[in-house]
Structure formats: structure tokens, C-alpha cells
Amino acid sequence: MNPLLSLLQPYPFERLRQLFDGITPNPAYTPISLGIGEPKHATPAFIQQAMIDAIQRIPSGLAAYPSTIGEPALRNAFASWLKKRYGIGVNPATQMLPVVGSREALFALTQTILSPKHIADQKPLVLCPNPFYQIYEGAALLAGAEPYYVASDPARNFAPDWDNVPAAVWAHTQQIFVCSPGNPTGAVMPLHEWQKLFDLSDRHGFVIASDECYSEIYFRDEPPLGGMQAAAMLGRHDFKNLISLTSLSKRSNVPGMRSGFVAGDASIIAQFLLYRTYHGCAMSPVVQAASTAAWSDETHVVENRALYKNKFAQVTPLLAPVMDVTLPDAGFYLWAGVAADDAVFARELYALYNVTVLPGSFLARQAQNHNPGAGRIRMALVADTAECLEAAQRIVEFVKTRS
């Protein structure tokens, strides 16, 4: 077996299952889960109908293998959306590819980019924010690299502190992961930090993988800045050493469809396409048709965002008196300080009030002598408003009984 598999840590949800093992939650309460970031809003009917129609409309139906590069209509839909959303022009033939969800692409892109070459007996480094989405770590480890966990700044909603990274680390870095808006904190990276990363990439040659799957769920008047948008604003119209990844899962409430795309540096896209022809992960023509419909419509996205805005506007002030929590810039998580051991807090909350939250320490690693997720919890406000409010009220009661 591949010895690198032994380096992988259990996924946060497996750790949560182990944490709750042996507990029978209080039967007086119906279960409510705020633990998993899986959208629960209804999938728009027109997307479902587009998939149904495609089965009969597409001449080959499901009887032919799809192309890895995707149909022109889909890639044109990607390009049109990028133009409308970010004001950037992208070549649909050379600068983008469909992917089977951003998680698959984040992993596969890393396998494409990283070279196993060691410098002075040191493994190549992949920089990850901390806290972070665990696929970043797994992708690095299984590519033979070593993850480096960038310190986070609590004063900036736990955004990565790029200035904290030593020069020697940058010199051995082959790839960095940027997540903006961030999971779990919702922090959005400003233009001056993009400038900093682009300058460092030019100096050291690493690739920036920009995970932007939460870009369409935001609470400020101005939508979050995207990586390619930042590059264009800074005159980097070739998107050198930059790949942005996005997905329909959160934007359109279709996590089961597994549909997204990558875009950016044409030279990297060409190599990624080569990798993917062997990897065997082309998107079904039926999913392509439904995806084209989804990317071509913004009305359902505006409505979806309004649902989240309303929900967060009610839940956040309810929780604020009993824990350290504020409205994030974007995303559908609350990243809350609980002034307690986060794992114990989550376990007791589940046992007494049948509410599931994710301990913050499960989403981070011990680095720079501490775990930045310790003493915090992540709550995914993905259910309907009434259920999220009920969960919040139980949490308030639970905290008050502990104090």
C-alpha cells in the first residue's frame, strides 16, 4: 500500500463520530445538526428540470463517454459568469475546465503541480491556512509534500498571517492554498494581500490555488474579491501561477450534482487537462447541461443569499451575549469562541440538548505552539431559519447552565 496513506489524519466528521461514541442524546429534544457544511436550501426547480430535459435532448444521452474538457456551451457559461461576476475576460478554450466539484479538483490540482524533487533533502512545502479545509493537507501529503500551517490572526477573524511565514519556508514552497471567503471563519482576503502573494509567487515560482466555493454567500454590500479579479486589477491578465476553483454546491444548492470549474493560468490548465485525461473524471453530459443552466442564472443566487442573510441576522445576535461570535464577511458558518474546551463543549451540548456543532480544534493543527481552533466551535447555518433559531436557543440555555 502507498505508505503516504499512513500520514492522513481522520476527517473532522470521523473525529466527531468518535467524540459522540457511547452518548445517547437527550430524547426530550429533536436532533439538530450544525456540524456539516452541506447546503439544505431547496435545489432550484429549473436546474433539476434542465437535467431531466438533457437526458432526452442530448443525442448521445448517457450512451457516450463525455469529453474531459467539457462542452463548449458549458465553458462559455463559465466565461460569461466570470465576466459578469468579476469583470474579467477569460478564454473558454484554454483557461478553464469543468471539475467534479471543487474538492476533487483541489486534490487533483495538487497532484498535477507538485514535483517530488527535494531541495537539500527537504520535501517541497504546501502552505495551508490554519484553521483549514482538510483536503488541503491530504492533497499535499499524498503528493509527497509537507504541509506548512500558516499562523492565523485572531484580530482579523483568523485570516492567514502571511507576514509570519519565514523566508526559508517561501523558498521551498511549491503551492499555497488560499480560501477566501474562508472556511471556517468567513474572512475575505483584501487586494493588498493578493499583491503580496503574487509578488512572492513571482519570486519563488509557487502556484496559488484559490478556493472560492463560498464566494456567492456574503453579508456585506460589496461581493468578495476573487483571486483572478485581484490579478486583473493588478495588471496580471495572464493569471500567471494562479488557479481559481469554484463550485455550484453552495451557490446553487446542488452539492449532490458535484459540479464546478477551475480557471486561470493557461499553461497550468493545459497540464491539468493532461492529468485529468488519465485521472478519468469527466463530467456527465447531463450534469453539464444542468450546470450550464445554473451558471447562466443569477436570480436563484440572489434569493439564496437573501435566505442566508435573514438567517444570520436573527441567529448571530441571539448567540452573541453568551459567546464570542460576530457576523462573518461571507460563507455560511459562525466561528464562535466558547471559553471552554471545544471538544468537551460539543460533546456535552450534544448529550444534553441534541445539537451538533464541530469543535474548532478539529479544523486546525497544532502549529507555532498552539491550535488556533482550540476553544472555538464551527456552526453551519445550513438548515432553515426556524431550525437554526431553535438550535441557537438551546445553545444559549446550555451556556447559561454551564456558567
What does this structure look like?
This protein is α/β, with parallel strands linked by helices. The protein has two domains: 3-42 and 300-402, Alpha-Beta Complex (Aspartate Aminotransferase, domain 1), CATH 3.90.1150.10; 46-297, Aspartate Aminotransferase, domain 2 (3-Layer(aba) Sandwich). The protein has helices at residues 12-19, 45-57, 72-86, 102-113, 135-142, 167-171, 191-204, 227-233, 248-252, 266-279, 285-295, 299-319, 342-353, 385-402, and strands at residues 32-33, 96-99, 125-129, 146-150, 152-153, 159-160, 173-179, 207-211, 242-247, 260-264, 333-337, 355-356, 358-359, 376-380. The strands form four sheets. A seven-stranded mixed β-sheet has the order 2-10-9-8-7-3-4, sandwiched between helices. It starts with 11 loop residues before the first helix and ends with a helix.
